[in-house]
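Researcher: Before we compare anything, I want clean individual predictions. No alignment, no superposition, just each chain on its own. First chain goes here; please echo the sequence and then give the structure tokens.
Model: Echoing the first chain and its structure:
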Amino acid sequence: MGQDSLLEALASQSRLLGAAVALGAEGVPGMSACERDLGAAELIVPTARELKQLRQRIRSGGDPLGDAFCLMRTPIERRGHGATYTPSTIVQAMIEWAAQGPVPLRVVDPGAGTARFAVAAGKRFPKAELTCIELDPLAAMLARANLAVHGMAARSQVLVMDYRGYEPTPRRHDGRTLYIGNPPYVRHHEISPTWKRWLTATARARGHDASQLAGLHVYFFLATVLLAAPGDRGAFITAAEWLDVNYGSLVRDLALDGLGGQAIHVIEPTAKPFEDADTTGAILCFEIGSKPRAVRLRRAKTIADLGNLDSGQPISRNRLAAAHRWTPLTRALQRVPSGYIELGELCRVHRGAVTGANRVFVIDALGDDLPPEVLFPAVTRARELFAAGAVLKTTAQLRHVIDIPADLDCFEDHDRKRVDRFLRRAKGLGVHNRYVARHRNAWWSVRLRTPAPILATYMARRAPAIVRNVADAHHINIAHGLYPREPLTYSLLDRLADALRASITVGGGRTYAGGLTKFEPREMERLMIPDVTAAGPPA
């Protein structure tokens, strides 16, 4: 039976459980009542030939049970538990980093899934006690089976519980614990108010602030600080957003005070660190209680580039503490080639105006309801720039933004009546009471910026679209406008747009879980580009 056929044959709960039991899952200590309840259901045991294939593949380093689990439950179905399974290349890189330090006597794998980290650690540290913590009872049973096949049952336990409530048994001997794994990524919307209060109160007790918008992986870092003893070490791979966003500030604080951050390895979004999820990846290596003078930061273009997790450019603790965002520090020390400059030396970058109510202020077609002088063709959707290619030549396909002057006395009687009718309709929809409208001098006046000669998208799962705006279209806040500080000829503007398209990558912005990359105006201004105003090509 081929690999795909074997996985397909296993991809049902009764078959997976049957395989797990037949492979020795029940011999691993710590089985919970909910796992026994699963086992009480009708099981379909694989054939002797299938079991032999499973054992061979597991012992050779594969995880066919985990692969079949991912085949049975789609990424959307696993999202509630934040279950994203880590490729073996990443697991091995993290284990090898751990092996460069003192040999651990205990290994804790929080959010263990099918025990990929625990199994790898068990191989590398043959005398270590292994603890897997997993909330999903089916995944826990598969973890038990993997540990049993590798002959690790006697020194392992699998606990079906929430890692935040884990209380390890008192240590029977001295020695270090290794905390290693892939904490589950669950958005804050799925986290209960009780746990959110736990996060903020527990962080405050340690002198840190914590946002209740934080995802579940942030909780795991804090829980580890509470559990671990000085000298314990660890490596977690998570979504990289904590490096930059406000609700990830607790992890940044803990990395400098408590966790003892040693190194951070950011995996480029284009590398897709997780096969079944469009998300980012960052590995934080730490040693509890340590306060090194610097933390090593590094960007890996591919998973294969991870290699030795001891490498990276040292960034001082003081510099990290002063920075609100850490991703730019992974790029700050790159050598600036001769003949290159920052985009900001040539252009100011401004996000487009916020209407405050697009369904009111953005219309699809011109009509007789408003005077034409308050209707402006504008880029109102990012896909309009992606579709335009290199040059936006016409506004024919664009929608119009209603931008009424603050002084209504400028209108003649007939036009004033048309404007007043629109304002009454907008008021009836409550537009005047919305946040943006209430903070404008005149709630109805959008105040579009003048057309920018170059437009750029700033949030997508790809590099920004850079478009020459020869049609003089306006733009709202779905795009940035690039405004030269000094007048540039059409030829130089074309060269600048070409240079940006050749230079800009997703790595220049901040990347969020889900794979979205965002460029704030100041981030875009810091992009390095050839100096198109220089005489001749850059060196």
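Researcher: Okay. Second chain, same rules.
Model: Second chain and its structure:
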Amino acid sequence: MIVSHHIESLAAIVGGEILGTSQQDVRILSTDSRSLPHSEGVLFVAIDGERHNGNNYIQQVYDKGVVSFLVDEKPDLEKFPGAVFLYVDDSLEALQKIATAQRTDFEGTVIGITGSNGKTIVKEWLYQAFQEDEPAVASAEVGKVIRSPRSYNSQLGVPLSLWLLSNQYNIAIIEAGISQTGEMQKLEKMIAPQIGILTNLGSAHRENFTSDKEKLLEKLQLFSASQKIIFRKDIMVDGEEITDLLKDMDAEKIAWSLSGKAKYSFRILDRESEKTMIELVHDHEKLDLFFPFSDDASIENVCHVIVCLLELGMDRKVIKEKISKLEPVEMRLQILKGIHGSTLVNDVYNSDLAGLNSALDVLMQQRNHSHRAVILSDLFQSGMEETELYSEVASLLKFKNIDKFYGIGEAISGHRHLFPGNAEFFKDTSTFLSAFNAAGITNYALLIKGARNFCLERITNELQLQVHQTILEIDVNALIDNLNYYRSIVSHETKIMVMVKALSYGSGSYEIAGLLQHQQVDYLAVAFSDEGLKLRHSGVKLPIMVMNSATADYQQLIDNELEPVIFTLDGLDKFRKACRFSGKVNYPVHLKLDTGMHRLGFTEKEIPGLLEKLPAEEIKINSIFSHMAGSDEEKFDEFSNEQAQLFIRLSGELMKKLDYPVMRHILNSAGAERFPEYHFDMVRIGIGLYGEGISKHLKQVSTFKTVISQVRELEKGETVGYSRSGKLNHDARIAVIPVGYADGIDRRLGNGNISFFVNGRHAPTVGNICMDMTMIDLSSIDATVGDVVELFGKECPVSEIAEILGTISYEVLTSIPERVKRVYIRE
């Protein structure tokens, strides 16, 4: 059952003032104007955050049909007939009060999970343990289970999770994440868990705390009123045993250990590459358990899950069965190139209703396609009656204007009357595959989403464009986090221009530009006009600045509303002429000034000639900009300041001649961080968006990976590769990976000059890099055909490769050709 509240009951909870009138009950909370689930029953919560003020998007949301709003700025009611506004002092605080009330009404057990690492994995594995096999659930007497969607664990995510609670569920699993002091107390008030789980205390957000102990004590506030705390005993925090740090907590301490005595003592009996056998000793009884993971983090997470299940009363035999069937947690969507010109949004391991709207939002962002389709299996453990559930699904699809729908499973097929007449239904995946005509999704964006037991990955494999197994994986969430970091260091008035030239620094063209458009950046910039044309043809509507356009391109620029950079007097004359030919006036252009980079731009000597030609009715100067030559290095700071002062003076002379406001910008990624005094009206973010640069706050975006094609045993003295350059000084296991210099692996990386990451170890290259293949030494690594090899990423930073090659990260990233498949993943 979906929770429903009248606006008056919410006003009573938050102590707000009702403005306007509406009879619509609130069933869904939304805080993102870009990704509304639908309009009926939606309360839009306008959050005034660090980077966006939701009150500024009321009109946009109202135009989509939403009539209920929670705001902390009074609206002009005449602009919104038929709408109702719940006015409060602070929208986020009000949302948290609503969540607290929702939690108070919940009669079941709440499990709260916090820590630095493993929160989401533990939550999802607990959910897996209860998701299927109703007899097992009944034996534990816990009934239906709900958990936080994906990683909704923040000050905003937690209340959105708690809104989903209803007494159809008997247990709720809620994540709580913090990044600084003072946050957990608010989360505890909302979640109020009876059972707490403290996962691994890693290095995340360490920079915001004076010590690991301070970070731990902040996290422990989540359990201040809990009945039980589950934790690993055999760890130290800043030299102190964790049991000592927990001693003042009133809750029962449920300790487990992998190396000593505890209420639950575990011992690893056997560990292979993809499976582990452990022994549990509890109450003088032993239990051997097998699970299909072997890394240290998974073992720790599994132990948390086992202990929690035992504390909840689940039968040991059932636990043993459940743990043996745990599956990898795929919390991230994949965006893949499909056959017949299609794009696939792959979400084949998640079947929750809460995630369906997020997946549909990603589908809608594929602006290079005008048609969209959805393949969806039965949804499980929703806590809703089936008719209500699939009515909600049908409403979502209608609101998102989905052109084609395919349902797989007996439950969804049994409710086909709720869906449009052209929807198709199949009892299982095999039936779908035997009947589906892939030509029917030519040039479509297609979402594939469903429960694991439907094996929808078979559909993905059938529809995915098959290319070689070397991929560049783009972490969309990390890219968005990097964008938001730059937004956080500039003022609300300073605009963001993002450089998407050279395939967005190797990350992809329209895929990245479409994402940035959804994130509402202010400007995009490309190097050449053909790059801008591709973005326009793929549906990108944002203003696009073209850094280096030839005279012959001017008509194409005008026809496609691309904005040229003017850097010569001759170029200015010719573009004005092109505007007159096209009948254009006030066409937007950008002036580039040379303040010391000496690449492109008007020099100081040319300013008088430029002033004589301004203003001109054919054009409108949207911005004046320049480029620092060394903004990333402290040794050039004096020169950088000289450049900035010259820019201020020259741009000031030009602006005096114009009778309208003009934006100014001079800073790139590094400059935006190091020179806040020169942010002016806009900053240009390039390599920093993709995780490379001077900032410690940036996240790795790109992971270049492949798989092992073959492994062979060779004897000492044999040689490997062209020119017999790889002479072995030991008996060796040599693997061939299908990637070479034609894929961006520089030949200078051969002969042991770099090591790639395989199954937790580094494998050095052997012999010369070939055009399409590279050989690596696996002598000390347990790996075989099909295992993944990371060429660069979290374990092998791009910066290290650049240092070996005597170059910069830009060159490494932009050297990866289009033949390497880009795969986009997001939470």
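Researcher: What stands out in the second chain?
Model: The mean pLDDT is 90. Additionally, The longest strand covers residues 264-271.
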